Structure formats: structure tokens, C-alpha cells
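Entry 14. Structure prediction run on the chain below.
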Amino acid sequence: MTSPDMDLQRLDYAGVQVPAAIRPAADTADLRHRELRDGEWWREIPAWSDVDAATFVDHRWQAKHSVTSLKRLLRTIEGVVSDEFFADVERGFRLAPMSVRVSPYVLSLIDWSSPWDDPLRRQFIPVASKLLPDHPKLDFDSLHEQADAPTPGLTHRYADKALFLPLDTCPVYCRFCTRSYAIGLDTEGVEKVALRPNKDRWRAAFAYVASRPELEDIVISGGDAYNLRPDWIREIGHTLLDMANIRRLRYATKGIAIMPQKVITDDDWLDAITEVTERGRRIGKEVVIHTHFNTAREITEHSRLAADRLMERGITVRNQSVLIKGVNDTVDEMTLLVKRLSYINVHPYYVYMHDMVKGVEDLRTTLATGIHLEKTVRGTTAGFNTPTFVCDAPGGGGKRAIHSFEHYERETGVSVFSAPSVKPGWFLYFDPLHTLPASGRERWADSTQHEVIVSEAIEAAESRSEYLHP
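Output returned:
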């Protein structure tokens, strides 16, 4: 017996008069999100001109040929960029707070004919000529994750959620990393806090989680869950699922965005994630993956293949982007990113204001930019595929919707948030100095004005809060 819906699907539409449209027909440009890069584009780089598709899609080849030093980068892109650009990169390495690791996949997607302005280069390879002076309020641990850690590698900020950091390595290192205080190798400017895989450290974290009945949601991050061995994925996942209080697990990995080949070809890793996910489903607990695409340029046919494998396994994938200048800070770029993510069944979840970490001021933009983008993106696609734009409030206030500020002073670039369910007090975000009017820059140039600026902003927030919340 067939249903009416099935009969409708079999209708022949030949000769059927199409109802008159209310909306104008979509422009071809509106469908750009369906155009995923395919083919063997990496062969354009001389070092990989002989690499066939089967080799390039092998996650082991991707890991083995990842760039981890200036010397290796030079060997890879020799003859592709100018000496001037490479000298700029060399100076950038010396000033960067993050050590460098970039996958061949990412390097192959960079437009090497215009590397200074390329959005992927901006995220992973520093150039000294683009760097800007740090805002005086920047920090290496701007979210105060260590201050909210009852034991190393476990941050308990929200009442029912904790962040577990089982390791301190990633398949690539992002210049803008919020954990530049710990992730990757030491640099000339930063001696890292060690969070290496350690079973005693893990057991202490597990003991704490089990002792707190209010904890229901654990984010497993790092570092990056991509770098967890399959047996570690199982150990961590099953240990947490065994706890009666835990209802939700999230494995956080940028890997799907920057090395989708692992999902495509590393069956052991994918089987481990699948095992934990399926067990969670059987016992009524949610296990998902959170990933991190920042630009539509990162989403290729390889990304779709990886997303399809995860979907076939019944694994939900959500995306968290960072708002980055020159990467996704225009309406066109952000809309294309959101729609392309939706097209490959990765749900846009959050867009973060760039955290206030040192050494990457050239990548930050203003709260006003985020507000404008949120207003414009909302309505371009379904609500469940529309990200929430948030400011992860410096000082540990947690994620606040960017529209929810108590006060925002554009001249000095200070926005003030409250987080009554997280912590008492006020949490301040600061727009980059180079985005301020001359009068604002002059005030920040005078160190005696710094606390005055902060006090003025808090007083304005208190006044507005009393008016709005009597």
C-alpha cells in the first residue's frame, strides 16, 4: 500500500502549470554555496604535482607532510611565492605566540598568487607586515580558563557543563587560538602550560566530574579530539557515559575543516567515535561532534565526503566559527559560509567574537561588525541553521549573545556584559585600537586613562542595568 505522499512524488510534472511565484527567481549567485571545489587542485603546488588523489586523501600522508617549521614551509612552496613574502613569514614566525603546524590540505587551498590577503594564510601563517600592536587589555588566557579549573585541564564555569582538555596538540595550529597559553610547542614569546595526555591527570578530572551531580554536559577538547587515539576516544567516552549524572558529550575538533581526509580514510578513529555515539544513543545520552570552519573556501568536496560519512553513522556535527578580519567579516562571506555548511549538513552553531588573546590583533574586529553580520545573516536560511553570534566574555563570563551588552561605547570600543547565571560582576570586551576614532585611540595611548575608560563604561552599564532591570 502506498501513501498519498509517495503517489505525489511519482507525479509527472510535464504539462503542469507552475503556480505564479511570489518571490523573484533566485540569482545564480545565490546558489554559490553548492559549488564545492573538486579535482586535484593540490597539483598546482610543484612539490605535490605528482601526488595522486588516493595519496592526497590518505590521512597518514596528510599528517606526515604537514608543515611544522619554516624550513619545511620553504621546501613546500619554493618557487610559488616571492622572496619578499617568505622573508615576511620568517619575521612573522619569530613574533607569533603559536607554533606552526599546517596540513597539506590547507596549504593547497591558499591562493599563492595573492598570499598576503588570502583568508586561509591569515589564519595559519603569520606575516610580520600585517601585525598590529596589542590592545593593552589583551591576555594569553583571556577567558580565565585556568582560574576556573579545579584540576589541571578541567574548566568548570557553567553550573551544568565542564570543559575537559585531555591533550594539548592539534592537527593544525591556529594563529588566533584562545589557548595559546597551552597549545603547541613553546615559542619565543610564550612558555606553554603543559596539558599532555596523562592518565593520572585524566582520573583526577573524572573524579571531579563524578563528584558533582549538577554536571550533565562535558566538552572534550584540547588541543583537538582529532589527535586522540581511538582507544583514548573510547576510554574517555565510555568513562563519562558510565556516570549517571552525564547526559551529553561533545567531541571538539577542527580536524573536519582542515584535514577531512582523516574522517574519510581513518576507519579506526571513526569507528571509535561511532561506538561511543551509538552507545550514548542506546542509553539515552547525546554524543556529538563540534567542528570549526571559518570560511566557505575551506569547504570542498573532501569536506562533503567527510560530513557524509559522519551522517551515515548518525553523528550530528555542529560548527563554531570565529569572526576574523579578512576571513569572514563581510556579509557575503559569512552568508556563504553559513549556507555552505548547511549544504553539507554541518549545523552552524556559534560565531564567536575573536577572543582577546595577544599577538593577533590584526585578526580581530569590532562588536559592531558582529552585530551587523548577525542581523543580515538571520533570515537567509532556516533558523536551526543560523548561528548565534556570541562574545565569550573575557574574565570567564561565558558566552553572551552579542546584542545583550549592558553598554557599548564606540569611541573607546568598550562593551560591557553581565552574566548573572555564571558569575557576578561585569565582563568587558574591547574593540581593536585600529578600529577606533582618533579621539578613542588618543585616550588609550595615555596609560593614565585606561582605568578611567573602564570605570566610565561600568558606570554606564550600571545605570542602564538599573533602568532595564529595576
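DSSP finds 17 helices and twelve strands in the chain.
Filed with the rest of this week's runs.
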